[in-house]
């Protein structure tokens, strides 16, 4: 079994019916890089930058961030790295951010609904400028994309893009080498507002990435970290699946690439459904890549599509699970 999974690393992630599915890894800590290399992932679909800020005593400056990002980008060679700007929020704490007087860590009565992600960055643009600059410089070392977290409004993307382009112009003027052309800028779709407006948002970005961890939480009003409502927190709830389906359709209509990077991207039982919903790019925990690839290689698109149609017609989570189970057994 281990050997079989090791062998998979070098095999393509093409379906039995021929379609290529992009399988990438999520990176939460730099220590995961060797694991990602071993997994056979085709790049990093989500680099969470929060680790740079967690437990930091001082804010990481542009130079510190550049060291980390350029190290990862170089290590990935020709494979792309999608770097998400700081998604500070809710349950996470940062001494560094608190020290310089940024709220969003304890001031909000309901942090998940408070100043987090892009909201915090736009409130403190210097933070976003330093991060954009570090990422733009790292992009000179390889293939990079940039993701904005917790978007609910097209206006947030517009302002972030203005800052992005201004930072790029400043670096160029100074003769500093940056990614050329500028790395694509994308938005996380992880709130119901963003999912329902995905077509509009897609017109303002170069790609979309569906974050089902938060999308599930906000759609079902069930905290992703709460044991009390763990049984309600279910990404297979028909409401969540309907949203995912709508986002994929909207992205295709706007001819913008769309990927999915929540935990369900790494669940091989759910892979046929996600492919059937139209996704061609999934980003997951590195250790999940071989098993998901196995499912991709043994599935036919037509069967996945039929499964997705049947799943979307169901109204009960139990019936959806049963359909996935049956698909696996056949
Ligand atoms: C998500 O919300 O699904 C996501 C990928 O982001 P995070 O888990 O970092 O909130
Ligand atoms: Mg999220």
Automatic annotation (TrEMBL):
The lineage of its organism: Bacteria, Pseudomonadati, Pseudomonadota, Alphaproteobacteria, Acetobacterales. It catalyses: L-histidyl-[protein] + phosphoenolpyruvate = N(pros)-phospho-L-histidyl-[protein] + pyruvate. Belongs to the PEP-utilizing enzyme family. Its cofactor is Mg(2+). It comes from Acetobacter musti. It comes from the Bacteria. Residues 3-299 form the PEP-utilising enzyme C-terminal domain. Its EC number is 2.7.3.9. The chain holds residues 276 to 605 of 605 of the full protein. This is Phosphoenolpyruvate-protein phosphotransferase. Keywords: Cytoplasm, Kinase, Magnesium, Metal-binding, Phosphotransferase system, Sugar transport, Transferase, Transport. One of its GO terms (molecular function) is phosphoenolpyruvate-protein phosphotransferase activity.
């Amino acid at each position: 079994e281990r050997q079989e999974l090791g062998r998979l690393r070098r095999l393509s992630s093409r379906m039995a019916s021929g379609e290529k599915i992009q399988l990438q890894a999520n990176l939460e800590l730099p220590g995961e890089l060797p694991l990602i290399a071993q997994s056979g992932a085709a790049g990093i679909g989500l680099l969470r930058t929060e680790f740079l800020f967690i437990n930091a005593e001082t804010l990481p400056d542009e130079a510190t961030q550049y060291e980390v990002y350029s190290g990862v980008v170089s290590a990935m060679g020709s494979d792309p790295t999608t770097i998400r700007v700081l998604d500070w929020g809710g349950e996470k704490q940062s001494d560094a951010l608190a020290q310089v007087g940024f709220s969003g860590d304890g001031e909000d009565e309901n942090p998940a609904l408070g100043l987090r992600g892009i909201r915090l960055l736009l409130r403190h643009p210097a933070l976003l400028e330093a991060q954009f600059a570090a990422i733009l410089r790292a992009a000179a070392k390889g293939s990079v994309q940039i993701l904005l977290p917790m978007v609910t409004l097209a206006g947030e993307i517009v302002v972030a893009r203005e800052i992005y382009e201004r930072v790029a112009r400043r670096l160029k003027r100074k003769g500093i080498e940056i990614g050329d052309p500028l790395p694509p800028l994308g938005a996380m779709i992880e709130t119901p507002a963003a999912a329902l407006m995905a077509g509009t948002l897609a017109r303002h970005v170069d790609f979309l990435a569906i974050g089902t961890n938060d999308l599930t939480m906000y759609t079902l009003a069930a905290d992703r970290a709460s044991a009390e409502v763990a049984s309600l927190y279910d990404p297979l709830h028909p409401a969540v699946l309907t949203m995912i389906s709508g986002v994929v359709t909207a992205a295709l209509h706007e001819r913008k690439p769309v990927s999915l990077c929540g935990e369900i991207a790494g669940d091989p039982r759910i892979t046929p459904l996600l492919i059937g919903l139209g996704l061609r790019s999934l980003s997951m925990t590195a250790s999940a890549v071989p098993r998901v690839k196995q499912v991709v290689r043994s599935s036919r698109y037509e069967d996945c599509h039929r499964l997705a149609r049947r799943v979307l017609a169901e109204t009960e989570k139990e019936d959806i699970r049963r359909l996935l189970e049956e698909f696996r057994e056949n």
